[in-house]
Amino acid sequence: MTSNKVMFLLLLLLSPLLYASESGTAELQSSPATQEIDPAARLIQLHAEIERSRIDLDKLKKQLSREKNEEQQKHLKLRVEELSKATENLVLAFDRIALNGIDWLSLNDSDKPAEKFDWQKELLLITRPLFSSLKELTEKPRRIEDLRNAYTRQNQLLESIDKALLSLHDLNKKNDNKVVQKRLDVLTEQWQQRRRDTQHLVESIRFELAGLQGDAHSNWDSFVLFVRDFMSGRGLTLLIAVLSLLAVWLVNRGLLTLAMRLLPAQQLNHKRHRSRSRAMGYIYQGLTLIIMIIVLLMVFYIRSDVLLLALLLIAVVMVLLTMRQAIPKYITEIRLLLDMGTVRVDERLVYNGIPLQVMSIQTFAILKNPELEGIVRLPLNKLTDLSSRPVIDEPWFPCQAGDYILLADQRFAQVQRLGIESVELLMAKTPVHFRTADFLSLEFKNLSREGFVLPMLFGIDYQHQSISTDQVPDVMQQHLTAEIMQSEWGNACREINVAFREAAVNSLDYHIALGFDASAAGSYGAIQRFVNKSLVELCNAREWGIPFTQLTLHQAPGNAVVQR
Fold it and tell me: In 3D, which of 217, 208, 216 has the Cα closest to residue 104?
């Protein structure tokens, strides 16, 4: 970032303050009462007013001491209090003009009584520099705003006093009673004094406000001065802190790299030493963080930047308090990071019904099934409720992409895609999707895993009962063997068995079992149709009858019964 951009950003940050200062100056300049007045002349005028007010105050006090009427005493006491307060305001106005707006009373606190020790307040001492800096940053705008409000209020009070004096003036013209006239003269003198006091206060506020806003530097000079002070003060402190942190990080990183090079790679990757190596790595990172915090504290302390030091200490304390409340959870997660928890790297666990292998455990745990597409990324807090076990010689998934399977309802399908979330099958040339967990709950046979056996049932008519147990099975087996060996699946055929099964209701049934290698899995349905075709052809050639469903009609008086 160039220096121009930095200056522009700082200007944006300071623009509210600059705008407030400019708008306040314009407001005062637009008022007719803001014409320039010589401070020396004003001080002479105020001094004369103070002396006159003190003389009047002495007269009132003497009159009060001689007065016997209680009603008049109360009235004189009220006048003494008002005149005393007005005299104090005149003295304060004189001091403010003489000191160019500096409030000496707010600076001089030597006469304040010593505060009692309060351990709760002492615990919060560390935050005082922060609030003091924020207060100092907004001191001038807040003081200007307060003076503007006071200036407006006093002007409104002047308007009310002028109305009261105008009313008294009208009454003096109309009144002929001497007693009432005497009372009106007293009220007129009181309100005239109030107007003078208020006018003095308005002028003192205007002088103080002009002193706060009458900076000798222009806005740009003030901005440049602020940037220069920041770069030579707190900005330099922050730069030193950043460079110190970078130096500490580079040194510690270099030492770690050197240690990794000196240690044999086989020892680092060995499963027995892996937990120890990870523990040492995390301890080293923790020590690096502690050293960096100490370096920051030293930099801020040496540079005597109380604000940055307080902010850093507050941040450290807040982190420690947060860790204190979450220590049990952190201990569990640290055990997982050190590969000493219930879930460990390279082991097997079941998540959402899917077997997964733990690939790594860092800020997130990476889980993956070698047979499925995609990975699962879990935060450490999700692993606390899981457990893993060592991997044994077992499949990660019952099928792979391209395998042919036979579902429990005898539906034949080919696996098209396997993913963490879904499985895609091809059934009768139509894609069908299952959730992976739901697919695992299905019962099916994987014809492509290690071959398959195709069981079939075939029956002949009872008229061949005499040869049904000896000749027919042999002839069927020889015929099927010759036919299949000449077909495209001959090399994949492992065995052919034909055996008499049972004498069923309408037929003599034979159990046929054909074993094939996995290479013939895609032709499961074609092989079924081929075997049925071959056996029908054999029956035609041997003139063996094939049974069919028979219908027998039994006629009875009044009804007919159909028997199947």
Answer: 208
pLDDT-derived band at 10 (thresholds 50, 70, 90) equals very low
* Cα 218 to Cα 224: distance, rounded to the nearest angstrom: 10
Non-local (6+) Cβ contacts of 485 within 8 A are: 493
Residues 6+ apart with CB under 8 A from 372: 354, 396, 397, 418, 419, 420, 436
Determine the number of helices (DSSP H) and then strands (DSSP E) in the chain.
18, 14
Domain spans of the chain, in order of start = 26-109+118-220, 233-325, 404-446, 452-542
Residues 300-346 have pLDDT tens digits of 888 887 778 877 887 888 887 777 766 666 677 777 777 677 788 88
For residue 422, which of 408, 434, 412 has the smallest C-alpha distance? 434
83 neighbors 196 (Cβ within 8 angstroms): no
Cα-Cα end-to-end distance for the chain: 96
Please enumerate in sequence order all residues whose Cβ is within 8 A of that of 386, keeping only pairs 6 or more positions apart, or say none.
342, 343, 349, 351
Strands 412-418 and 422-427 turn out to be antiparallel
pLDDT category at 476 given cuts 50, 70, 90 is very high
State how far the Cα of 534 lies from the Cα of 496, in Å rounded to an integer: 14
Q: Give phi and psi for 216, each to the nearest 5.
A: -70, -25
Convert the pLDDT of each residue in 215-225 to its tens digit: 544 556 656 76
* pLDDT at 511 > cutoff 90: yes
Identify the bridge partners of residue 350 per DSSP, sorted by sequence position: 355
Residue 4: predicted pLDDT: 41
Give me the CATH topology for the region 452-542.
Answer: Alpha-Beta Plaits (3.30.70)
Q: What is the distance between the alpha carbons of residues 394 and 379, in angstroms, rounded to a whole number?
A: 27
| Distance in angstroms (rounded) separating the CA atoms of residues 478 and 487 | 14
Question: Whose structure tokens read 């960096």?
Answer: 292
